[in-house]
Fold each of these.
Amino acid sequence: DLSKQLRDVETLQTATHQALAALAAAVASGAVDKVEAWLQALAKLHPLVEYSEAVAAAKACALLAVGKPHKASAACKLGYTAPPSLAKAPWRLWLLTQAQYQLGDMQAALKWATRLASVLQQEVASAGWQSEYEQEAEAFGGNSVHALAGAGLQLPSQEEAALNWADQLANIVQKVGSPGWQSEYEQEAEAFGGNSVQALAGAGLQLPSREEVGCVVSHLTALSALKEEGNAAVKDGNLRLAVDKYSAALALLPPPGYAAVLHCNRAAAHQGLDSLVDALADCGRAKALDPGYARGTTRMASVLL
């Protein structure tokens, strides 16, 4: 009967909240095996759990925290038929940016960061306008304000918004907090796991500001450009310039996987300049940063021969 169904729903909600809390504790402890165990426990709670935006955000955050960007990226993807705008969820774009960055794929990271910047710019430019993502997310887990709170994501206060994003964003934050106001994403998320503000709060996720995303985009653009300029210099035979370009990219402190590629590329340029000691040193750095990077080993072999 209806009362039993309601009790079942309440029981599932309680179990899900307990599992999310245990997952957060496992992440804080740094115990990868415990994190994976609680992720499996979440998946086994009920088939409908996979439709929760809150759970998806928590899973992706946990996987990123324990150094599993491949799995985090997969957790961000929609594994079911859903309104296209759910793919534009700010939390999803932000975590995909981080996952691809950790994997060393600057082009993919730049793609997601650019999309996030566009979404945030839309929100600022159209205060009070309900975005497509927000409207559709209501059917997929609840009002985005509540969902983000549940995942650990915090929107700025009205005062912070006024300082950081000017009066337009302050107006957005004020309307989000008004009873009865629901954006497009928030309306559609209702059937998919709860209000997104609550979801992100539960996952311990902090979304960046529009300005911070802009800085991320600039950083990723610079990394990609410097690497490509170095590659072009190698093709043109300007090896000294190539060394300078790769060195400039490394000075931006890229993630280990990408840094390994840059060191390997710089090793090739040093080798062409007969700077074999420098070439060998760069090969060693590449192997240390990414032991599974085969080119680091083959480049070292070519230098030694």
Amino acid sequence: MEFFGKFEKVFFEASSASSLETPSSDSSNSDSNAAPPLAYYDGRDLFYSSVDIMKDEATYQVEFPENRCRSMKEVPFPVVVKKNKCLTDTIELYTSSPNKQMDPILMAFFEVMLKHSLFRKQYSRVGQSFYMLNNNARPLDCFIPAKDVFAGFHLNMKHVFNGLSIQVKDKCGVFYKSMPLIQLLVAFLSSFLALMTVFQCDFWQSDGPQESDFWMDKYRMVESNKFVKKLKIRIVSQSNSNGREKTIKELTENPASNTHFEDESGKKTNVADYFSQHQRLNYPHLPCISTRGKNVEYFPLEVCHVLPKQPVKGLLDPNSISSLIRVAAKPAPDTFRAIKDNMLTATQAIQSDMDNMNMSIERSMQKTEARVLEAPAMKYGDGSQHPNNGTWYPRAFINPKQVKNWGACIVSRRSNRSASDAVKRAIEVLYSAGQKLGMEVGYLAYENMPTEIQPSQLEEFLGFCVENNFELVLIVLDNKNTEEYSQAKFLAERKFPGLLTQCAQMRTIQKINEQSATMILMKINAKLGGQNAECDLTLVNPTNGVLFTKEHPVLVQGLETSIIPGQESLIGMASSYDQNASLYTMQSRLCENVNVVTSFLDMQKEALKTYYRLTRQKPESIIFFRPGTNEHQISTTAAYEITAIREACKQLQESYK
């Protein structure tokens, strides 16, 4: 990134454009009054400009940052830039006729320009979201240990029938507090690993065997390394390194008193003794941090201070997620005001860029007509339920399955004497809830279950379950976000296909009630091939009861897209295979263009074959839901996919239409 930042400056200087802060620099140093640049860099490999600033091809000499590559000296590095397309005429065409379909390159230009402008005007960008993190910014009232929560917004560009629109979403971002690194590490190990008791006893002591036992635990060391890696810190000590900013590479395996290096005079010493020359170290038995760069440097934990407002990467622990949800879940009027205020501030910040394009942003939100449909009734085995404000309580399943030969295990890296009793109590609640739902839940296959196992024993345990023909395995985990969850699903779906598993968090099991037990049983019944409920479709049937009958079967399908930047996009298509469109099959493909899915014909043929194989009927009608495309592209996409649907029917049977 530093190299591309240097190249960006060289490019703009050569093009006589306005000065521009590089993406790798701190946005707080940018000049909010600077004139807009003549070109915008997308951070990857493209520059966008509304004026012609270069010839067809040009070569620029950029000095490669020596500290980023040990094998290269800081010498000029040639970069060739080629003109791809001139956007001047395209922009003029759009401004004169905004209702016409927009060139995708022009759409990308507007989005890059908008986000680049926000970055230049003191906004900090995290992913696709923006936060104003200047000295006046105040965190939200949300308690997450060692972290602050700031309000922000996410935006992207959309082209609708009445012109170009900006879609804005209210966001909350989590950032590390500025604090001593050693305190941040304490908060991490206390909350994420739930080791507060062990931590207080072992971590701080240097006169007993406990601290070596603590850091000898590979899991703790690996997780701690993941946590501190790439954190930016400032050295606070009385040594020559005082005030220097560094990026953490990793924690050392050995404590500071046993991590050796050569000092300035070439004498071999350890980190603790070296820093003890300048100040007293309280915790020489703790590991050090090593820093990134050409020459690796070592620093004791207690001289490191975390720089403020660094975004938290990775998953939060469950308690932090709950706290964040409570702050982020706001009533619709509050969200409306937050979005309006954010856009007002952002519009003022980027107005000069918009003026340069002869464009403006409206102050008021765009109004869209909508209608509220009456909620359909949910049919159960013993009657119907009408949702009230989107909620209803499940009744007896339509087609309940039985669970007789099944097992349970507790996967945890640490022993918990009360865990087994908690699971046994939860199974009693599942048994009671199953009776009300018409679902028979038997007792565990073996008296010594649930079995407490280490993650390394999970594969062996699941293999035992397969050998004993278990219908289901309940896997209780410390946290759903742990590696054990992915491991369990991988083993069940790849290593032991056909073995059904239901994962649950220990905190859910400990607090289980009839409602949460019902939710778990709904998932289990669906996995076993049962049917919990079906939707009464008469309310949404425009043909007075002709559709969704045995005489007129209907195939309901939906296609969803997941765009992965720089890679092929993921396409998923769900297809119903029952009379009430409550049971679905799933297909997935990779695709380069989400608007024209080249494998759509094959997917449709497979869906029709599956429908016929499971129902022994051919659908008389197909209802297809297709999100993931803009209003201008939908007509082209619909024409392509409707043609493919008809062709799929024709290829399966000439007379089938």
Amino acid sequence: MNTRMRAVALRAGAAAALAVGLVAVAGPAYAADGPDVAVTPISLHLAKGVKEAKAKPFQVELRNFGNAAASDVSVKLDLSGLKGKVGYVTPDGCTKSGPAAYACPIGDIAADQDVVIGIPLFNANGKKGNGGSFSITAVVPGDTNEENNSADVDVTVEAKTYDLTVWAQDIYADVVADGDEVGEEARTPVAPGGTAPLDSAIFNHGSKRVVGIGYSVMLPAGASIAAMPENCIVWEDVNGIICEDDEVVLKPGEVLLPEISVKVADDATAGVITDGIIDARALEPGATDPEQPGDEARAATQEQRKELVDADEADNQARFDIFVGAAPTGEPSTPPGEPGEGGGGGLPVTGPAAGIIGGIGALVVIAGVVLFLVARRRRIVTVTPDA
């Protein structure tokens, strides 16, 4: 995979698309005292030609809008409504509860935190169109609003094309920027004034390669960009960066790992700085990357460029939080006479960090292991197809 990076000026069209993507996340709403877990579909489309070995994790968000942690959460999946165009991989760790029905443990979801579940789907018969639907229901003891606990997810199979999906891990001091959470169970908060990597990944879960990726990062108040690839520019208006790599080539099942690190403000208080965002879009084919037979992503005609579009832009964005610890003992959080660098603050940590069961990364995806994602702001559990 070609991952050369060059400093380039971001095209106006790509910048506008990324800007639109970054403002798509609404702020949290709060319910009555207690947990309030809402089920919201994210992924809606699947590219024609996606094989079982590289099934796309169809993302569904479980977000706790309540003011108390949700404990012992599980989900019920009913996949019987999927038509012949769409197949699924049985989630590992789930208990079969009926024909094409499963019960899957999730664990705890802290207040104002989310879990993203990815149900692995693929194009079973090589045809596009209406792929049917599946239903998902969150089972939450003590939920204060059960009306938002279920969703029916319609699946549409689009033309054969690429399909970018974006993943990001919460920021902790001991995170490694490798596109997965394996071996990173310590979860040490970042000290005020400290830096840590933003572990993120941009996947191609489609059936065609894509040439050229633009991505942007927006940070909340209380944090700033400490380091970024040379092909990025600072986006001061939203406290973030915009990046372009017009030479990267992502084949189906491959991943791009941006190298970005974040600095926590010197005056940040212990807690959680919420709702950082990373968003990705495909660029036009790079002029230095010659067309290859059968690859529409490299074609030069305007008609072909119009036809090859992202199969599902709804999952091109991921959110992440920054967990902040206390200032070092005996040292003020802001040195005397020096101004702080941001608002900091954030909500106090109201629930324990979840344990990590599995991981996601380039080697996992390229090897064809299909994923059942469970993310506490991207906590993950791997699955494999039935034997």
